[in-house]
């Protein structure tokens, strides 16, 4: 399926990567294709095409991930980034798993009560926008850590992004609307918002040229990670911090490291699921929810019937209660992972489950442990079978709305993913406590859930999505749609989603969610809250003949590419 094409005035026509198919002035979203060899699904057609061009040039899935993520940093400024962070979950053809944490980190001067006034009350918006909301960015460190698994040179991988920034690309209607909505905030929170702000409103087909960002990308090309964390780019970040009373220092930048973590691995109905561990809550929540429902004949209950949705909501409620209390950066907080995933513990959590009525979140607290939270996702499978799932984030759309003056990129507002005060909800309505309190050098709890599924020791699925706290429930439901309801990739991604996160105690449902199920749930005592859209999932399913059934979410500009 090909959606309406996006085209504009051709300013220049540099070759992007090796692919003759990458034309930044004429492109369209392709939503679902089965490719025979290799595939990329990402939030933007140009980024997916760049990833594929890199693989056609001899790169593997890791090369494609680096080039796609860098391209997203240019063509999708609302969430693609070099000023944010992310997680990579990958499996090489020999079965080796890689969980790479390049999550943002609290600056060295950060402290537990930094967003509270003298009376101990949160200062509205301080953790959500502007300089003080930014954590130390991890993306560039993550890209260089990924390079050790890649085949091509970094110079080759970054050049398409440089060309897109330097010569421009035409923007979609979504992007034009996003930039227009963020205009006032860019001006309020930046010394120099650069290319993102112009006098007339943006419209679909305008060309966005980002010379400052192109120069930053060239410094990274020429100096490696030091081109970001040291030298001129670091000076620009620190000067921007001084302009807006932010906290990120030269030391914070120089000392930032990406970390490899042991992945969360578990079985679900004969499939092996591999997902991201803390400081993401995503892998643990996914494991808890799937293991809870594995005990029930969900296929027999039927897709989005009151019975299956009610069960899944109650699994979501209990898992998110645990998130609020027990999950945080494992380098600062002992996350009781083994217990949280044990059969006995999960059975105990469902002891009070009643299939005829809603539980109440005021009666369900986190379990007792007796053992010493705008984002974007890329799914890639290459010709050899390397699988890469990467979720990366600025947090809110356009992050902190602080553009680093002269450097042309937007900083994250990831500090809001910490619990700024126990029990006070963040922008996603999620609450937390001590486990996710702010501390210098600590990584804030995430919900990002880049996930791989293996069947009989062979690649079966690569999946992930943006969406804040709705990420784990969207990945959960996409997997259930494929495994329990035998859906193809496009249906698994695009069928309506629902979400419960313990607090607030309601079930969010997409507008096209089945009316009869909604009514039945309300009769059982659930409060239903309609919501415009949940997630933008990118899913690749590997079919028995080895072909790659690839779907990009219809909720945005997302697009697949492959060969
Ligand atoms: N900023 C969204 C997340 O990391 O969960």
Q: Strands, helices and their partners?
A:
Layout: E1 2-7, E2 26-30, E3 32-35, E4 39-42, H1 45-56, H2 61-75, E5 85-91, E6 97-102, H3 139-147, H4 154-167, E7 169-170, H5 173-189, E8 207-208, H6 211-223, H7 226-229, H8 231-244, H9 250-255, E9 259-261, E10 264-268, E11 271-275, H10 282-294, H11 298-301, H12 306-326, H13 337-340, H14 343-349, E12 375-381, E13 387-393, E14 451-455, E15 458-464, H15 471-483, H16 489-494, E16 498-499, E17 507-510, H17 515-523, E18 528-531, E19 538-542, E20 548-552, E21 559-562
Parallel strand pairs: 17-18
Antiparallel strand pairs: 1-2, 3-20, 4-12, 4-21, 5-6, 5-13, 6-9, 7-8, 10-11, 11-14, 12-13, 14-15, 15-19, 16-17, 19-20
Helix pairs in contact: 1-2, 2-4, 4-6, 10-12, 10-15
The protein binds glycine.
Pfam families: G_glu_transpept
Binding site for L-glutamate: 103, 393-395, 417, 446-447, 468
GO molecular function, one term: glutathione hydrolase activity
Explain this structure.
One of its GO terms (biological process) is glutathione biosynthetic process. L-glutamate binds at residues 103, 393-395, 417, 446-447, 468. This enzyme consists of two polypeptide chains, which are synthesized in precursor form from a single polypeptide. The protein is 32% helix and 18% strand. The protein has a seven-stranded antiparallel sheet with strand order 3-20-19-15-14-11-10. The longest helix has 21 residues, at 306-326. α1 runs antiparallel to α2, α2 (61-75) runs parallel beside α4 and α10 runs parallel beside α15. The model has no long low-confidence stretch (mean pLDDT 94). By secondary structure, it is an alpha+beta fold. The chain is built from 17 helices and 21 strands. It has two domains: 32-257 and 390-423, no CATH class; 264-374 and 447-554, Gamma-glutamyltranspeptidase, large (L) subunit, C-terminal domain (Serum Albumin, Chain A, Domain 1). β5 and β6 form a beta hairpin. Glycine binds next to loops.
């Amino acid at each position: 399926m090909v959606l309406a094409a996006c085209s504009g005035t051709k300013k220049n026509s540099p070759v992007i990567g090796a692919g003759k198919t990458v034309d930044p002035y004429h492109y369209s979203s392709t939503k679902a294709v089965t490719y025979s060899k290799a595939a990329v699904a990402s939030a933007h057609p140009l980024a997916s095409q760049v990833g594929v061009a890199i693989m056609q040039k001899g790169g593997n899935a890791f090369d494609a991930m680096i080039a796609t993520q860098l391209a997203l940093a240019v063509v999708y400024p609302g969430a693609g980034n070099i000023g944010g962070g992310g997680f990579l979950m990958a499996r090489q053809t020999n079965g080796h798993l890689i969980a790479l944490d390049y999550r943002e980190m609290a600056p060295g001067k950060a402290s537990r009560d930094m967003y509270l006034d003298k009376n101990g009350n949160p200062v509205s918006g301080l953790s959500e926008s502007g300089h003080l909301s930014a954590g130390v960015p991890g993306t560039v460190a993550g890209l260089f850590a990924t390079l050790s698994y890649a085949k091509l040179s970094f110079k080759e991988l970054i050049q398409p992004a440089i060309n897109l920034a330097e010569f421009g690309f035409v923007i979609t209607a979504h992007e034009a609307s996003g930039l227009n909505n963020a205009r006032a905030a860019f001006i309020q929170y930046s010394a120099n918002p650069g290319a993102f702000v112009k006098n007339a409103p943006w419209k679909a087909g305008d060309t966005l040229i980002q010379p400052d960002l192109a120069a930053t990308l060239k410094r990274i090309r020429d100096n490696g990670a030091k081109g970001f964390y040291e030298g001129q780019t670091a000076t620009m970040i620190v000067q921007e911090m001084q302009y807006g009373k932010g906290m990120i220092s030269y030391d914070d930048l120089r000392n930032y490291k990406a970390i490899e973590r042991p992945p969360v691995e578990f079985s679900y109905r004969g499939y092996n699921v591999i997902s991201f561990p803390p400081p993401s809550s995503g892998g643990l929540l996914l494991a808890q929810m799937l293991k809870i429902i594995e005990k029930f004949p969900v296929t027999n209950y039927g897709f989005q019937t009151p019975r299956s949705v009610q069960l899944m909501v109650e699994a979501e409620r209990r898992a998110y209660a645990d998130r609020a209390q027990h999950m945080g950066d494992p380098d600062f907080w002992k996350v009781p992972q083994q217990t949280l995933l044990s059969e006995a513990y999960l059975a105990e959590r469902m002891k009070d489950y009643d299939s005829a009525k809603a539980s109440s979140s005021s009666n369900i607290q986190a379990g007792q442990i007796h053992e010493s939270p705008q984002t974007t996702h890329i799914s890639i499978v290459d010709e050899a079978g390397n699988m890469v799932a990467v979720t990366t984030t600025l947090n809110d759309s356009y992050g902190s709305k602080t553009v680093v003056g002269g450097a042309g990129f937007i900083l994250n507002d990831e500090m809001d993913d910490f619990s700024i005060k126990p029990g006070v909800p963040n922008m996603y309505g999620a609450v937390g406590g001590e486990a996710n309190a702010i501390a210098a050098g600590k990584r804030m709890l995430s919900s990002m859930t880049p996930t791989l599924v293996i069947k009989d020791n062979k690649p079966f699925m690569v999946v992930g999505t943006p969406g804040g706290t709705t990420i784990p429930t969207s990945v959960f439901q996409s997997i259930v749609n494929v495994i329990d309801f035998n859906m193809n990739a496009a249906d698994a991604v695009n069928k309506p989603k629902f979400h419960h996160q313990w607090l607030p105690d309601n079930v969010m449902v997409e507008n096209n969610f089945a009316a009869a199920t909604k009514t039945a749930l309300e009769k059982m005592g659930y409060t239903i809250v309609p919501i415009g859209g949940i997630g933008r999932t990118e899913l690749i399913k590997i079919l028995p003949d080895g072909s790659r059934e690839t779907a990009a979410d219809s909720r945005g500009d997302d697009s697949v590419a492959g060969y």
